[in-house]
Amino acid sequence: MPMVIADARNGDHPIVLANQAFLDLTGYGPDEVVGRNCRFLQRWETSKGAIAEIRAAVGEGQECDVEILNDRKDGSAFWNQLHLSPVRDETGQLLYIFATQRDVTESRKIRSLEAAEHRLLREVDHRAMNALAIVEGIVRLTRADNPSSVRRRYPEPSATPRQGPRALGARRLARSSSRRAAACIGRDARWPAYHVAGAADRGRRGAGSALDDCSA
Fold first, then answer.
1. Which of 1, 7, 91, 163 gives a 20 to 30 Å CA spacing to 83?
2. CB under 8 Å to 33, separation ≥6 — which residues?
3. Which residues of 131-146 are buried (b: 16+ CB within 10 A; e: fewer)?
4. Average pLDDT, the chain
């Protein structure tokens, strides 16, 4: 495992020991590492929050576990899971900071892909449920394809003395419109299947567009 030891008694906390695994991970030679602060591995994109967390742990002599974006000698970036541990003498005085590193670049990529897949599945499920709701609504509407059911639902209008002839005329107009709609549906037996199929096709296209959006 890559590891270094830094001198906590020196204000800049220089590295005093680095093992071969650390040199292999970073691409630097021992003469390029010893005597330097570990900050030389930081990139301009490195999280300021992660840097502040490390500084606070070092200043207080506390343990710290953080993932930080670092640089290799060749300029390539890698995600470093850094663990810091204080080393004290028998009186409790802080002497060294022991740090281990682990390259977690690939595991972060896997976590990112899994999160994207989860978002995709939620979007597809949401669109499929919307399409199903449309289909169910059409099926409920097309149950009126029997004109007699419409007549049972809308009986002949009648007016009370308080409503007057104008209200009676409006109700007769609504009744006439319902009869015409029921007659049209009754003549075309293909109407329910046609519209249900169309809604299902729109649902499939919606799910497909979700896949395209997430894979782009």
1. 91
2. 4, 15, 18, 22, 23, 26
3. beebbeebeeeeebbe
4. 75
pLDDT for 129-156, tens place per residue?
A: 777 777 777 777 766 555 555 455 445 5
The model carries a pTM of 0.52
- The span from the CA of 146 to the CA of 82, in Å, is 73
* Whether CATH 3.30.450.20 fits 3-103: yes
Is 3 within 8 Å of 99 (Cβ atoms)? yes
Domain locations in the chain as residue ranges: 3-103, 109-215
Residue 20 burial class via C-beta count within 10 angstroms: exposed 0-12, middle 13-18, buried 19 and up: exposed
Cα atoms found within 13 Å of the Cα of residue 192, Cβ hemisphere only: 14
